[in-house]
Amino acid sequence: MNRFSNSRSMLWKEYFVYDATATLLAGTGTVFASTQIRIDSDANFELVKSSYVATNDRIKLKYRDDSLGRYLVKDPVDIKSIAGRNTLPMGLSNSFMPFIWPRPYSLAAGSTFVVEAADASSAANTMRLSFHGAKVRPGIAPWLKKSYRAEIPMIYGFSGGAITVAALSSDTARIEIDVDSDFLVHKIVGVRTGAATISITETARGREWMSTAVHIDNVVGNGAFPNILRDPRFISRGSTITINLTDLSGAANVIEVTMIGVKLYE
User: Fold this and answer.
1) How far apart are CA 248 and CA 194, in angstroms?
2) Whole-model pTM above 0.90?
3) Which of 47, 121, 248, 258 could form a disulfide with 133 if both were Cys (CB 3.0 to 4.6 A apart)?
4) Count of structural domains, the chain
């Protein structure tokens, strides 16, 4: 029997990210533009954390759950108050320091979550806002269906090491999982020399980790401030994690993403 056995239930959760990206017109924080996030029809989403990257931090936000016609923000709030962000200068490793909700909030499968945002900087402003949580699925988690005899900490990086993404171009890296054991991802860390977007896919199951490509600072942390997944991602033995990267910096961009978790031996 493994240490997960007393956690069995008829629902299980896996880490997922929804993203809202918008270019806001110059303003004073009073004219709001709506960005809709369509929750996938395959699973409810449990919202736990939020993080952002923006041209200027002076942004006002409101959130609306369309399935219930409910606002989660009574009055417009500064983005810095309800979303976290990387605090390290570009070229250093990312610090993942999100806003953590007081308790998870459930969004129904197939529903719409709306982000209403207004620039208050008096200049055009690009906002990249990510919501971290978990897809809630029926059944038993894949790692609970087996009886593992051992769990060993493991760190997986890009096969072949860091890659250099050409200016304003895209590239793909892979993380190859050993054939001797399944892998349960608990943390995401990495480094980059410039801004970029990232999307992650499990090749074996064809499952995405996010609704669309997100800013790398919204999903990748460092050793001191890692992105700790509230609910892990299960990767079967011998499979591949595909990392798609697109440079936003306009210069050659050295990027490395690392998955930290445990090997599960049967």
Assistant:
1) 7
2) yes
3) 47
4) 2
